[in-house]
Write a structure and sequence with these properties.
globular; 6-stranded mixed sheet
Length: 231
């Protein structure tokens, strides 16, 4: 079986004009992860990722820290891209201006806890087809993540280790599909995912077996405690 590492991108630029770029801390998190892989002599044959800038930047920094990183075959797959949460949040807030969480989030846009509580409401509405005007139907999102899963399973037949870099929504959907979880439980996973966390599977002809979820062994030392983030 092939070992498959599904990594969430490093910290992006939360509450800034362009979220889809790594923060300086995110670049540092990526370097630490790349050095961890190098120190553990973990090498990858194939490195798929989503198309988003934060995915590509994370891959660039991680593989640059690995002796054989640049030899890995890199590719992109739309199924590893995140859902358009900023757009869906805006639509939901416009539809429900009197919602208590909506009002609080508008008054405190940099409050991450409020953001994630509101996002959970939005995702539930989306999965139940109650978010009129959503840029991507829930079923389409599920289908493209499952397409990425099938593609990675096909890569496993001819690869050693595989590293994929994605986002919280796609990673939780991928994991939930392996475990047979409901949308609500998938959202529970989504809200927990840490930046540069590793969700590890064994992939083979019969599918995927989860070995580890949301692990940050590269940030386990106490000197890295302030580098564990969720956005």
């Amino acid at each position: 079986m092939t070992e498959f590492y599904l990594v969430r991108h490093a910290q992006a630029s939360f509450a800034s004009e362009n979220y889809d770029t790594l923060s300086s801390l995110g670049v540092n998190q990526s370097r630490i992860l790349g050095r961890y892989f190098a120190g553990q002599a973990i090498e990858f044959d194939t490195v798929p990722s989503g198309n988003m800038r934060r995915h590509l930047q994370t891959v660039d920094v991680v593989v640059a820290e690995m002796p054989a990183g640049e030899r890995a075959s890199r590719e992109r797959h739309h199924g590893l891209d995140e859902y358009a949460f900023h757009v869906m949040l805006r639509i939901y807030c416009d539809l429900h201006p009197d919602n208590e969480l909506v009002r609080a989030a508008r008054e405190q846009p940099a409050d991450r806890r409020l953001f994630f509580r509101l996002l959970r409401q939005v995702l539930e509405a989306w999965s139940e087809n109650r978010l009129e005007g959503a840029p991507e139907p829930w079923d389409d999102f599920v289908a493209r993540v499952l397409d990425a899963r099938a593609h990675i399973q096909s890569l496993a037949a001819d690869s050693g280790r595989i590293l994929a870099v994605s986002s919280g929504g796609a990673i939780s959907m991928f994991t939930g599909s392996v475990l047979g979880l409901s949308p609500g439980h998938i959202f529970d996973l989504n809200m927990q995912l840490r930046n540069t966390s590793i969700t590890r599977f064994f992939a083979g002809s019969n599918g995927f077996r989860l070995a580890e979820f949301n692990a940050v062994p590269h940030l386990a030392h106490r000197r890295f405690a302030d580098r564990i983030t969720f956005s």
